[in-house]
Design brief:
Layout: E1 2-7, H1 10-28, E2 36-41, H2 52-57, E3 65-66, H3 74-92, E4 96-100, H4 104-115, E5 120-123, H5 135-145, E6 149-152, H6 155-163, E7 169-170, E8 174-175, E9 177-180, H7 184-199, E10 212-216, H8 220-223, H9 226-239, E11 244-248, H10 251-259, E12 270-272, H11 277-286, E13 289-292, H12 295-303, E14 308-310, H13 318-322, E15 326-328, H14 333-341, H15 359-370
Helix pairs in contact: 1-7, 1-15, 3-4, 4-5, 7-11, 7-12, 9-14
């Protein structure tokens, strides 16, 4: 069996690490039929610290192809990816095209495969923010609709699909498979958490355990709106009166601030360059609180049992809110300060909303069972 894996952005590298490891372990078993994985990197994240280093840190095989497509508008980027991926599908003739998440790379991979009648497997299917202004929401909805297998990370995601009328019939009258396999990011967190805590010291950045707030900002809804961005940074500067605020600054956010002459918004904050995955996990693990507009980091905060403040108007990861680990503060100065002032550490729960840490194994087993 041959799987063509499409990757383009940081969260996808992390998710793919779990599945790639499951494939290698399967291939090492005696009498197992070999599963071949062909990795395509679209180039959507081009900064070395935002892409290439993830392949090293997470022991992901180097990409077989790199399309080098980045720094374009949504239409141009998706169109060029669609063209490039289509050519590779024709060349490689895979049994499956595997896509992750909700980026332009995800949609391009799914569209290219569907048009060539190659079945698509979507990892992290069924998520919904119910905000169609988000490019990610458009990408995930379209990808779900044309996928043969929908690998959901939570029961909520399964219910989202059912409420929209899924499963649908695919070409050849095949019905879509919907499976709650758990979250592959939880697989990776469990695999690396203890070894990361032992191997990486917070002294690397002059920090103390639980002595700082960690913040990430990258979504266009925040970075492209000066009012929202100013409100967020003003709240962060106020928080620095009580605790150090550390920001590994996304290149896109840094460039926008420089272009608009608003670098002074960073005054008083501890600014870091984008950092590799394992170091980021160490910063998350040691934080007193995490403030973020990233979907993946909201989950990672919960995995590490660190309170989170989400700098968006909604979240796909409603379980983190329901369990009390995540507060939605929008980009509102007062809401952010209120959320920070009212941080709580919920009691530990036996709930496992993101699975048991074996999502990748379940994904591989199911794809093999259909062949």
């Amino acid at each position: 069996m041959k799987i063509l894996t499409i990757l383009g952005a940081r969260p996808q590298f992390i998710k793919a690490a779990a599945v790639s490891r499951a494939i290698r372990q399967h291939n090492e078993c005696i009498d197992s039929r070999v599963v071949q994985e062909v990795i395509v990197h679209t180039g959507q994240h081009f900064d070395a610290n935002m892409s290439e280093v993830f392949f090293t840190d997470l022991d992901i095989p180097k990409p077989d192809y790199n399309l080098g497509i980045a720094s374009l508008g949504h239409g141009a980027m998706t169109g060029r990816m669609l063209e490039g991926i289509e050519s590779l599908i024709q060349k490689e003739a895979p049994n499956w095209v595997l896509v992750y998440g909700d980026t332009n790379s995800t949609l391009a991979g799914a569209l290219a495969a569907a048009k060539l009648h190659i079945p698509v497997a979507h990892v992290e299917a069924g998520l919904r923010s119910h905000n169609m202004a988000m490019p990610e929401e458009v990408n995930r909805i379209l990808t779900d609709r044309i996928s043969r297998v929908l690998f959901c990370p939570t029961q909520t995601a399964v219910e989202n699909l059912h409420s929209e009328g899924y499963p649908f019939l695919q070409p050849g009258k095949q019905q879509q498979d919907i499976l709650n396999v758990g979250d592959v990011m939880y697989d990776i967190t469990l695999y690396y958490r203890d070894r990361t805590a032992k191997a990486i010291s917070l002294k690397t950045w002059g920090l103390e355990e639980k002595g700082y707030a960690l913040c990430t900002l990258h979504r266009a809804e925040n970075t492209d709106d000066p009012r929202r961005l100013e409100s967020i940074f003003s709240a962060l500067r106020e928080i620095t009166r009580e605790i150090k605020v550390v920001i590994p600054l996304h290149p896109r956010t840094r460039n926008l601030l420089e272009k608009q002459g608003r670098q002074h918004w960073l005054n008083g904050l501890t600014i870091l360059e984008p950092i590799p995955y394992l170091q980021m996990q160490r910063l998350e693990l040691g934080a007193h609180v995490i403030l973020t507009d990233s979907g993946g980091i909201q989950k990672e905060a919960y995995f590490h049992q660190v309170p989170c403040i989400t700098l968006r108007d909604e979240t796909e990861w409603v379980e983190t809110v329901e369990m009390g680990w995540n507060q939605i503060a929008k980009a509102d100065h007062q809401l952010i300060i209120s959320a920070f002032s009212n941080l709580q550490t919920p009691p530990r729960s036996n709930q496992l909303p993101y699975g048991n840490g074996d999502a990748a194994v379940q994904i591989l087993q199911h794809l093999r069972s259909i062949q």
